[in-house]
Design a protein that fits this description.
The chain crosses the membrane at residues 12-31, 88-108. The protein is mostly helical. It has 3 domains: 11-94; 124-156, no CATH class; 162-362, no CATH class. It is 56% helix and 2% strand. It has helices spanning 6-30, 32-49, 57-70, 78-89, 94-113, 124-129, 162-169, 179-189, 202-216, 223-234, 254-260, 266-272, 276-287, 301-304, 306-313, 325-339, 350-362; strands at residues 172-173, 176-177, 240-241, 244-245. Strand 1 (172-173) and strand 2 (176-177) form a beta hairpin. The longest helix is centred in the N-terminal third of the chain and has 25 residues, at 6-30. The radius of gyration is 39 Å and the shape is elongated.
């Protein structure tokens, strides 16, 4: 559709103004007496508000004039009506003055409130990190100038696709998938076998400490999860891992771990889930039922335990990543076996291998 030209718009505006003026003239011509009478009555009434015994005599004089004019409204000219209404306006001149003073005051106060610090692309993330601690770890990863993860360091690179996973682990031999090798890799992805909460490693204990208040605590304890996360993220300013910055001080979680490590209900979870990552994936799944605990809140975990981070990043998803497929599948089997009153004798990761094999055939890598 063609846009109207500026000249056409100007002509349209002139026509609209002309119609408005003509309408006003029409009203004045056909309703002259009514307009002047009620206009004078309005002015007389307003002046009456200010006509006190101690008021200047000019107000009473103006009211008398208006009353005389109102006796013959049909003879009143437009200029005379405007002059009368203008006199009434003197009593309201303070309104625009006050509004002007207030506007000046607001403008001055606004200038005082303007941030004095320099805000740029480089400084904004650091400013926002004060309000959202989850940002802090990523400030120390990637490019220090742009503060973006666009340099893809090995410990923070993106998720592998099946083709990359197969190539990385060398499980494709003579156009055949080495299923036994795949099963061994996926079993390792499940984490270490555990019998008690003390079997978790230091990083895993921190994650347990984050999720535990949502499962074993009362509603008033739920906030402990976010409080611990914030403390861990703030500590990333000082903490290191493998001599790299941007990692938390894990000791901050010790007191909360001790608080929940002896929970009686814990035995049922450990009986159901026999591996560290399936256990944490399962309690994470339960913990998010009472509020959000996304993996972005513990972004530092990806550089410390990539397999566990992807297992927890998968929580709540319908399908897993290739790096979390074993944990995702095994957890479902553990829950199913427990519901049916059975105990799994060995890991159930064959379906994961079947899925990879089917995918590779679909894309033409396997015949």
């Amino acid at each position: 559709m063609a846009e109207p030209k500026k000249d056409d718009m100007a002509m349209t505006n002139l026509i609209l103004i002309g119609i408005l003026v003509a309408f006003c003239v029409f009203l004045w011509y056909f309703y002259h007496t009514d307009i002047t009478y009620y206009g004078l009555k309005f002015a007389w009434t307003i002046l009456g508000i200010f006509d006190w015994s101690f008021s200047p005599g000019i107000i009473s004089f103006w009211r008398s004039q208006i009353a005389q004019l109102a006796s013959q409204p049909q003879n009143l000219k437009f200029e005379q009506l405007l002059e009368v209404l203008n006199k009434v306006g003197y009593f309201f001149i303070w309104i625009p003055i006050i509004l002007a003073i207030r506007g000046i005051k607001l403008a001055i106060e606004k200038n005082k409130k303007l941030p004095k610090r320099k805000i740029t692309v480089e400084t904004l993330p650091w400013i926002m990190a004060k309000h959202s601690p989850a940002i802090i770890p990523s400030l120390y990863y990637g490019d220090s100038k742009s503060l973006l993860l666009n340099v893809n360091p090995p410990e923070h690179k993106g998720a592998l696709n099946p083709e990359e996973w197969v190539e990385q682990h060398g499980v494709l031999i003579n156009n055949e998938l080495d299923r036994e090798r795949c099963i061994d890799i996926f079993i390792k992805d499940l984490g270490t076998p555990i019998q008690s909460i003390q079997d978790l490693n230091e990083v895993e204990k921190v994650l347990f400490s984050i999720f535990a208040p949502r499962i074993f605590g009362k509603e008033k304890n739920f906030k402990e999860s976010q409080q611990l996360l914030d403390s861990l993220n703030y500590s990333c300013h000082q903490g290191t891992f493998n001599e790299k910055k941007g990692y938390p001080t894990l000791a901050l979680a010790q007191s909360q771990f001790n608080k929940y490590a002896s929970e009686p209900q814990l035995a049922k979870w450990l009986e159901k889930h026999k591996y560290s990552r399936t256990f944490l994936h399962a309690i994470h799944k339960q913990a998010i039922q009472t509020g959000k605990l996304p993996s972005s809140q513990f972004r530092w975990l990806k550089g410390m335990d990539r397999g566990l981070w992807y297992a927890l990043n998968t929580t709540g998803r319908k399908t897993p990543f290739i790096e979390s497929a074993a944990v995702f599948t095994q957890t479902l089997w553990e829950e199913y076996a427990s519901d049916m009153g059975y105990e799994l004798a060995e890991p159930q990761v064959d379906e994961v291998v079947d899925g990879i094999e089917a995918y590779l055939r679909k894309v033409g890598i396997l015949n």
